[in-house]
Amino acid sequence: MPSGVYVRTKEHREILSKALNRPEVKAKISESLKGNIPWNKGLTNCSEEARRNMSEAHKGKKASEETKRKMGESQKGRKHSEKSKRKMGESQKGRKNSEEAKRKMSEAHKGKKREPFSEETKRKMSEAHKGYKPSEEARRNMSEAQKGKKMPPFSEQHKRNMKGHSGVYVRTAEHNRKNSESQKGKKRPPFSEEWKRKISEAKKGKKRSPHSEETKRKMSGSHKGKKYPNRKNPGPCTEETRRKMSESRKGKKSSEEARRNMSKARKGKKYKPLSEETKRKMSEASRGEKASNWQGGISYEPYSIDWTRTLRRSIRERDHYTCQFCGALQSDIALDVHHIDYNKKNCNPTNLITLCHSCNAKVNYKRENWTKYFKGRLEIMNDRENLFYETIG
User: Fold this and answer.
1) DSSP codes joined into one string, 174-215
2) What's the rounded mean pLDDT across residues 147-159?
3) What are the helix (H) ranges across the chain?
4) Considering the entire predicted model, what is its pTM?
5) At what angle do helices 23-33 and 10-20 cross, to 10 degrees?
6) Quick one: average pLDDT of 4-13?
7) Which one is predicted more confidently, 369 or 73?
8) DSSP character at residue 322
9) Is 354 helix (H, G, I), strand (E, B) or coil?
10) Interatomic CA distance for residues 288 and 296, integer angstroms
């Protein structure tokens, strides 16, 4: 052998590789190594300096396709032990990949399709996630990561997988049962104001598709025997809940579109007549100080001595026995005489006007507006009367 450094030739390396890759040679080597202690067993991990040097030495180097193939084949059939998995998991705890590492991993996975999980893997993943709840920090990070992203459309293969034989994806009874059991005893936390606002904005302009007859039948069957709060059966709603519901509706007014839709929905429907007990409760709920237009009991104050039958007849005659708002003529029932400034003591003819019973009830609201309206109405009537007498004279 010549002096110096011995270097194997390419032909020599190929011959040696073929010889060592034979199954019988591999078996003999494996048997001979049994019981031997590896040279690196018990040694501590590499220092940070050594790792840095090795990392810099490998920078820019890439394994050939042949080398990658051989490495892949050598790993086939190998499985990590539970102890190895546990150690690997503990070593990764608390580590976060850098943005550069994430970008490289993303580029490396582009165009690659992951093999579907086996049933055993799915079961293990399901058991591992039982009882797990992400922290508020994790939720916030996931929410921020999804902002501005749009879910890509389903592929044709995915759509076919989701569809059943009838063309519609239907959950199985077993799936429904598992979902129901997993939700038992759980209470959803109330939505925050910010979350409610986002849900409201997301649903704006969207119309819910009508329920099918089959869905309606199932919903009806699921509600049979259950009692919900209503007039006859107050149900589980407490007084505190009712008060909160009432306060939440205060000051809110339905839009014209909503009113129109509610009116169309009620057309053709017949409702049960109110019972005498319900009528009595409604009447008591709007009496006296409970009434929405309560004015401190001024309706019980007496009229002045000038408020006579003769005065009321003269006002009706002046107004030609006609309601000065809707134009209704007097019938068997006499028309009402209304005080324009709502003061019973002021019985001056310029403060009185003829109204029908229905219009007299309407003008009890927004009194300042009605006072201005009827004063203007009387001025017009007086001007017409003066013009008429001037023409005759």
Assistant:
1) HHHHHHHHHHTT--PPPPPHHHHHHHHHHHTT--PPPPPHHH
2) 72
3) 10-20, 23-33, 48-58, 65-75, 82-92, 99-109, 119-128, 136-146, 156-162, 173-183, 193-203, 213-223, 239-249, 256-266, 276-285, 309-318, 357-362, 367-392
4) 0.32
5) 70
6) 70
7) 369
8) B
9) strand
10) 9
